[in-house]
Input
Amino acid sequence: MNAKITTKNKLYINKNYSYFCLHMFIKSSYLIILIFISQLIFAQSTTQAIESGNDPNVLYRNEMSFGVFAHSRGFGVNFIRAKHVTSTRKRLMEIEALNLKHPKEIKVSNQNDNSKRFVYGKINSILLFRAGIGYQTTIYKRADRKSVEIRSSYYLGGNLTFSKPNYILVYRQSNLGTKYQESVRYDPTKYTIDSISGKGPLIDGLGELKVYPGFYAKANLSFEYAPYSNKVKAIETGVIFDYYPKALPIMAHNPAENFIITLYVGFVFGKKWF
Output
């Protein structure tokens, strides 16, 4: 008898528990649907307000932007993903790709055989990738869309630098006595400026790439001037510090560099959403 009562009690408890779980699932589903609908209505009303020429000036949590920039030793592009931590502070993630030149790179040409311009003394071409995280803080919040918002940012991260040997064109003489051009790897101990007739093809040396890993830190100021609060338009300017445990060689007769400082200015454009 006790065994039967116990079995019935277990069945009763299991049945009630199932009903409770089903009830909570239905309530949770209703709550999720209500939140989704309210967010959708709010987003649509915001979009309609912007399209009608009225800016609601609300806080968007997410931001994605692209940028192009010129730095003191080349050019680059970047991608930035941001998310608000507070109303005036964002967490940032960025990826950059850029070239890196030496300050002493100068294109020259000799007067022999109509040679093309080339960089004399360059031993490596450099392509650099950076990835880092950081934070952005609003210094001056814009009062209206006609004013400018000023922000400061900093990043810390790693870089991966690819070094490709520089190839040059030199004249050779065939067995028949005719001249022809040959692409060879530049060697400062073998080739003088008078023996070079031009820059070698870009693809030459791709099989001889070397990788130089390193670290970087960046600090900048951003001047936001987008006409609507859901858009990103800004001018950035700042300084970047790159460090390489293994020195990076670029020019002959110049020391390889462990520590590189560059200044930059760029344009950033993108969008914001909830």
